[in-house]
Amino acid sequence: MEEFIKTLTEQMRCVKARSGVARELADHITDQAEAYEHAGMKYEDALERAVHEMGDPVEIGVSMDRIHKPQADWKMMLLTFMLSIAGMFCMIPVYGSEIVPKQLLILLAAFVVVMAVYFIDYSILGRVGVAAYLVLTVFLWTSRHFYFPTINGRVPAMAVLVYLYVPVFAGILYQLRMRGYRSVLMAIAVIGITMFLALYFSSTMTTVLNMFLIMIVMTGAAAAKGMFGRQKKGMTALTAAVGILPLVYVLVAACSNVNSFRMHRIMAFLNWSQYQNEEGYLYKVIHEILNHTKFVGGGSMEFLEQYPIDSGMASEMMPLVIVYLYGVIAGILMTGLVVLFLLRAFLIVHAQKNQLGFLVSMSCSLVIFLNCAEGILVSFAMLPLTTTTLPFLTRGASTALVYAVLIGLLLSVHRYEKVFAAERFGSLREPKWKLRVRVERR
Fold first, then answer.
1. Percent of the chain with pLDDT strictly greater than 90
2. pTM above the 0.85 mark?
3. Which residue, 75, 111, 258, 314, has fewest beta-carbon neighbours within 10 Å?
4. What is the pLDDT of residues 122-164, one digit of tens each?
């Protein structure tokens, strides 16, 4: 059997796929040999027959090589390229043509990051999740204190850089497999620590809440899939209960102080016309801009600059700016490309049988989806105004590079989709040695 499996796996060019295929073949041959033993055959004869029935190892190995090999997601790559170029052209009317050289340099660096992460084996996150978390924390602390400038009491770049905690958290969840309720409690503890760090680094409550929601959904999905143990319903319910705590806190805080600043902002969103000279002024501006939009073509930045939609705010409200400057049809086309990109991302998540691949692709997809949805809805006054970082549309090297890492991880997961086999529940790692005991009646 060993010689058969060795010959077969040698035909496979992808070294990473060999161990999984060898394990599956060994299990299949052993099961078939045991069936022949139960039918009355001797062990050696049963094993030889099971191996013989498998066929030509070279021919099977060539077939396996065609199946278990890295695959490129050209559709995702094309959509990434199209959205990046479209986003750059949308920025030109806002920031002027002088932004083109700098933005091209940022796009080039982003594509280098995408390709670098794409060719790196994403499964490293499942081995060094905790170490990566500590390294990332040191990097963010150093960047916040010694590199990035502080503006109005916060560091704008940190509002997007802290999202790198999310795929790292996927690796930590993977390391917590099959520990029962202790897995859920430890995951919740990591979420709490991450929220504290994210608030400290970014000083942006929206980012913190987004990360909390994403991490809770990831933990609940892992529990529902049985990654933590057999008591799936109980662990999922525990995760959901923790997930609603922020909502309860917001409701209690709002009811206990109806005259607070945050309560006024909520009331301004629900009834902006009544507060149009106060907290609702920006909602009034958005509605006035939308009233001046056309189906094709539009206005100029001079009109927008009459309102507080200057170059700084335009970066956070680019969907609104695109619709006004280029027309409703251009906005629909841009939104359509984003939707296609998101659908492709979630198809990658849906196709994953590997647990780590599922968690990593889910983490990246949720970050991109939540920020896209939030950015579009905020731009059209369908959500309360807040700080947003839209992929492909928000200016800045930090934003471009963080989303490049997330997209690169998505492509890496898809690349190895047919290489890594699904893990067996109940085991954190494959044993190096196996002991087989055979009892014969003489």
1. 39
2. no
3. 258
4. 889 999 999 999 999 999 999 988 888 777 667 788 999 999 9
